Amino acid sequence: MWWFNLLAIDIQFSTILAFAGGLVLLYLVGWLLLVPLKIVWRLIYNGIIGGVVLWLLNLIGGYFGFTLAINPLTALIVGFLGVPGVILLVILKFILP
What we know:
Elements lengths: L1 H6 L5 H49 L10 H10 L1 H13 L2
Helix pairs in contact: 2-3, 3-4
């Protein structure tokens, strides 16, 4: 059983603890980088869908004399809220002349 002595590795407990701590730290850094990316992708997705809805609303509403301006403020509202943001802008258009 001379091979048993070759496989017996003398690892200190502090080394194992440092390795486990490094894995936990790597997980936390990955999580902190992933969560903001999900938020950014959600905002981009909502902005694209809301922009398309605004464009379609202006395209169809142009026949009836109803348009909404597409500017940075409306893009921000639609990007943050999505389609409900477009509904909010339509309601505000009727309330505020």
